[in-house]
Amino acid sequence: MLTRITRRAALGGAAVAALGGRHARAAASTIRIGVLTDLNGPNAASNGKGSVVGSQLAAEDFMAAHPDIKVEVLAADYQSKPDIATSIARDWIDTKGVSVISSVNNSAAALAVANLVKEKNKAALITGAASSDLTGKACTPNHIHWTYDTWSIGKSTGGALVKAGGDSWFFIAADYAFGRALARDTASFVTGAGGKVLGTVYTPFPETSDFSSFLLQAQASGAKVLGLANSGTNTTDCIKQGAEFGLQAHGLRMAALLMMIPDLHGVGLKAAQGLVLTESFYWDMNDNTRAYGRRFGARMGGWMPSMIQAADYSAVHAYLDTVQAMGVDHAADGRAVIAQMKKTGSDDTLFGRCVIREDGTRLNPMYLFQVKTPEQSKYPWDYYTLLSTTPADQAFRPMNEGGCPLVQT
């Protein structure tokens, strides 16, 4: 049974929420999941509470189908700091019977958690972090990278805009693993399609909130496209400030390389209209996604889910089904569970049937959207026009090019 989320201070000030009872070591008929996310920081809107809710909905659906198995979800705000993330995850694994860590929206933290679950032989479902290194040189047999990465976003957005005439770029990138990987991967598609990169500036994360000087550098560069290789409030601040400067009106097209619908909602269509972005999920795609949007929104004050918050449902759903099929006692062997997930893939109402590769990449289509004008939007959260779709088998880096040591070439 899942109970109401509660908060308390733990592990150096991290806020920890427990769903489902006391923190004793899990019994054989109980599966414990630890959701590491950003509850209060720059990425809270597209991760945060919504990631916990997505995991909770998956757990509830699973328990309705398997009432003999109890699922408990623990959640913590790790403040986007890798050391706090690993401290919380280690404590969950060592003292609270957690068998799988999920979400982890910061790439540096995700890389650290991936190493930890390998050491402890537990599992990780990385739905929030973006770095393609997670399935490249940093791949492990104990984690899967769900729903998107910097390579897939770069291909969907960078290559398409060059073909549409946006053949010169300037990047504003967050100065840590995620931002550098996103700028790197997108730049490779820009140049590969015949475009050129006129400059890149790296901004301190999460300290930067005034992007004025960086936006003016982008404008002065003469680039046709400004690639925002950041996320959360960093991205929304860039868009709002860019709108104040009239950048798009003066011919500098803005591409939010990692922006999701909750962030867009916070900006508003007036400032964001015409923006181009990529997601692997949109609540208004079909009847199944709309049904999930309604369920999710009922617990989130009417807000619709990001691709990450949909992936949290999808990943937990797939993990629980796999553990149930193997036997709950097998949850202790994270490597075995991940291996079985790779064999069976994933299948749910949000993303459909998806392959999970040997390098830990979960394959799904990627969608390039353009943000509607206020006049084009006909109802709440009607924000996107679909421009193009990259099929699942083309959306992610070829497995033999990533440098994953698990891949036999």
Strand order of the largest sheet: 1-2-4-3-5-6-7
Number of strands: 16
Mean pLDDT: 90
Task: Find the structural class using helix and strand composition.
Answer: alpha/beta
Cα gyration radius (Å): 20 Å
CATH class of the largest domain: Alpha Beta
The general outline is globular
List the helices and strands and how they pair.
Layout: E1 6-10, E2 14-19, E3 30-37, H1 48-65, E4 70-77, H2 82-95, E5 100-103, H3 107-120, E6 123-126, E7 143-145, H4 150-163, E8 168-174, H5 177-192, E9 196-203, H6 212-221, E10 225-229, H7 232-245, E11 253-256, H8 261-267, H9 269-272, E12 276-279, H10 287-299, H11 307-326, H12 334-344, E13 346-348, E14 352-354, E15 366-371, E16 384-390, H13 392-395
Parallel strand pairs: 3-4, 3-5, 5-6, 6-7, 8-9, 8-10, 10-11, 11-12
Antiparallel strand pairs: 1-2, 2-4, 12-15, 13-14, 15-16
Helix pairs in contact: 1-11, 2-3, 4-5, 7-8, 11-12
Defining traits:
disordered N terminus; seven-stranded mixed β-sheet; Rossmann fold; globular; alpha/beta; 21% strand; 409 residues; 13 helices
Structure write-up:
The chain has 409 residues and is α/β, with parallel strands linked by helices. The protein has 13 helices and 16 strands. It folds into two domains: 219 residues, Rossmann fold (3-Layer(aba) Sandwich), CATH 3.40.50.2300; 157 residues, 3-Layer(aba) Sandwich (Rossmann fold), CATH 3.40.50.2300. Helices cover 39% and strands 21% of the residues. Strands 1-2-4-3-5-6-7 form a seven-stranded mixed β-sheet, with helices on both faces. It has a seven-stranded mixed β-sheet with strand order 9-8-10-11-12-15-16, with helices on both faces. Strands 13-14 form a two-stranded antiparallel sheet. Helix 2 packs parallel to helix 3, helix 7 packs parallel to helix 8 and helix 11 crosses helix 12. It is globular and about 60 Å long. It starts with 5 loop residues before the first strand and ends in a 14-residue tail after the last helix.
